[in-house]
What we know:
Oligomer: single chain
Distance between the termini: 76 Å
Shape: globular
Amino acid sequence: MSDTGPPALTVVLVLVAIGAAFAAYGWFEAGWLRRRVLEVELDDLPPELDGLRIAHLSDLHLGVPSRGAGAVEKAVEWVAERRPDIVCITGDLLSRRSGMRTLERHLATLAPCFVVLGNHDFASSRDPFSQRLDEAELALPQGVSLLADSSAEVVLGGRRIQLVGVDPRTYFRGEARPSRLTDRTADLRILLCHFPGVARKLQDGAFDLVLSGHLHAGQIVVPLPGGKLRLAHLRARDVEGIYRYGKTVLHVSPGIGTTFVPFRLFARPEVTELVVRSKP
């Protein structure tokens, strides 16, 4: 009797080759930075702020061997070259403390900027490689504002812009109340929170713009005919891009670094410049 099927060894070798090809591409994509400019329409935006440019970076995950570190370097260079009006970073700055000096160098380049922390900065994740950040070890360069359930103000074009940041620890405990910090007299109110879910918990109109990250656009994604299968955060609703909740616009950054594995698959790292426009 003849055996018409391929030998078992051949099947194994083919599967190994396919797996190696995906791993090689995933390693490559982790450093293949996308530089994107998006226009965001906001209600009741004063004409003096029309065209305001906001750089949004998230999920740097410095300190682990990955091409993501190179992507962060390129992202910082791009933002520095473009010189936006405001720079915001929405958490997961570090995966391990060995990346702290690199982080401080990048923050010095981006200053003045506004920063919130994420769950990885406190090793609050399932990632076995994550290390807790001791805030006392983090020497913030001049011009870097760390917002932890606190706010700051910037005046541009004679208009007041309020920035509020959420501490990930109070968010996890269900204690964060960023709407209580809202200054209704400000001409533009921006909320920085690592977790996109915060947008669904806000009072309507408390903030004009919410900046978040956390989800890495899925990081490992399988494209299917009916859409994308994201192997991380399967139940997440707002994964990447622009979403609107009433008068509030949410931007979820795909992030730049990697976690768990040093790969990205059909979920490129991204640094985004948001150009704020007045909604017709």
